[in-house]
Amino acid sequence: MGPNPNLKRLHDAGVSIWLDTISRELLDSGEFASLIHDSSATGARTNPTIFAQAITGSDLYEAQRRRLASRAWKGTQEPFLPCGLDD
């Protein structure tokens, strides 16, 4: 999908364009980066229910989930910090 001139005009006028979804596939495929670059998207948002369904309804997150579950965490917030997710 190429650049969308209408979205570009909105972005240039100061409107923040957010996707109402995020997924491992969107990130891994590079499509999310393309949407930011080509369609002036600002970012993405989701809600806990949709995010939980994405994680439990797909095998795409299984390896990372197992890796995170096997660690001894120092506190309840540590798994959500960027350094905890990259390990």
If you had to describe this structure to a student in words, what would you say it looks like?
With 87 residues, this protein is mostly helical. It has helices at 5-12, 24-28, 31-39, 48-56, 62-69, 82-86; strands at residues 17-19, 41-44. 51% of the residues lie in helices and 8% in strands.
Provide the residue-averaged pLDDT.
Answer: 81
Number of strands: 2
> Looking across the biggest beta sheet, what order are the strands in?
1-2
Global geometry: elongated
> Strand share of the residues?
5-15%
Please supply descriptive tags for the structure shown above.
87 residues; 2 strands; 51% helix
Structure, briefly:
The chain has 87 residues and is mostly helical. It has 6 helices and 2 strands.
Walk me through the topology.
Elements: H1 5-12, E1 17-19, H2 24-28, H3 31-39, E2 41-44, H4 48-56, H5 62-69, H6 82-86
Parallel strand pairs: 1-2
